[in-house]
């Protein structure tokens, strides 16, 4: 495994298939190899393991062989559909969230479905996706399969890449990652900056002056990226309001929305900010959560 690989959490579920489709589409743009990782947790083999995989009792070697065949077949089919890509598959042991977090240290990108076979129907996004998004060592993309979600794959890649930027270190990392994706896909970049009048508490508060200050700060953040990727069309939205609500609105019709783990309003002890959590739960398109390694 290399730090350039796209690692896909795969368990044969519908959500995992959608995540795999997104990862393969990403790989066609970046040229990176793709690795499917099925995390085999012995203590939960009484649950559903995958298509054609019967429940067993620990240590059920037959079930493990069936899982290995499932992954081998899925990787082979993916490689056949994308002859220019390198696709591998592997079966790992341990708690899925923990194992994927550890493996993310060796990957360039980790892609997850919103829920796997262990997900509860009432949850929009499963505990594994939330936990891994908070703790992974590389950027994480969560792909939802909700009725309002944009389908994954190349056919859904006409929309812009949306990114939330508030001037924080996490947001600036997200901005750079989003610009690179927009350039790879040859689509517009939409940059959203939400600000609050409470940030300007001095006497004689001037809304127009405050808005101009926010816009100037964002232009400064964007300047090096405009120079590096002049071919990327950039649309900027600077407005007051809830960052989560504004980004959810901007995500409609987008192919991807990108955020940092925490914004400038995030509490130091929180590994995943409220805006990031809101988006991975409710955005109608895949969500990328970007962090520094």
Automatic annotation (TrEMBL):
Q: Per its UniProt record, what SUPFAM superfamilies does this chain match?
A: Adenine nucleotide alpha hydrolases-like
Q: Specify the superkingdom.
A: Bacteria
Q: Which residues form the UspA domain?
A: 6-144, 160-291
**PANTHER family reported for this sequence:** ADENINE NUCLEOTIDE ALPHA HYDROLASES-LIKE SUPERFAMILY PROTEIN
Q: Which family does it belong to?
A: Belongs to the universal stress protein A family.
Q: What is this protein called?
A: Universal stress protein UspA
């Amino acid at each position: 495994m290399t730090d350039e690989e796209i690692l896909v959490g795969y368990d044969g579920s519908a959500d995992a298939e959608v995540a795999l489709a997104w990862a393969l589409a990403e790989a066609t743009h970046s040229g990176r190899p793709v690795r499917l990782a099925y995390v085999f947790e012995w203590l939960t083999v009484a649950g559903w393991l995958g298509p054609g995989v019967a429940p067993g009792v620990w240590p059920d070697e037959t079930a493990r062989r069936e899982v290995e065949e499932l992954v081998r077949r899925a990787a082979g089919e993916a490689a056949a559909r994308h002859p220019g890509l390198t696709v591998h598959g592997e079966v790992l042991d341990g708690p899925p969230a923990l194992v994927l977090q550890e493996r993310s240290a060796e990957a360039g990108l980790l892609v997850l479905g919103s829920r796997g076979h262990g997900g509860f129907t009432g949850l929009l996004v499963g505990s594994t996706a939330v936990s891994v998004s908070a703790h992974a060592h590389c950027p994480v993309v969560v792909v939802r399969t909700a009725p309002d979600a944009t389908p994954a794959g190349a056919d859904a890649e006409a929309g812009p890449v949306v990114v939330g930027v508030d001037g924080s270190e996490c947001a600036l990392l997200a901005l750079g990652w989003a610009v690179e994706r927009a350039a790879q896909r040859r689509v517009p970049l939409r940059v959203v900056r939400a600000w609050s009048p409470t940030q300007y508490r001095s006497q004689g508060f001037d809304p127009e002056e405050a808005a101009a200050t926010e816009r100037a700060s964002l232009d400064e953040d964007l300047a090096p990226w405009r120079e590096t990727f002049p071919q990327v069309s950039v649309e900027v939205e600077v407005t007051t309001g809830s960052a989560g609500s504004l980004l959810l609105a901007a995500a409609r019709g987008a192919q991807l929305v990108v955020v940092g783990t925490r914004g400038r309003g995030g509490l130091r002890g929180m590994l995943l900010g409220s805006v990031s959590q809101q988006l991975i739960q409710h955005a109608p398109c895949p969500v990328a959560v970007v962090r520094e390694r």
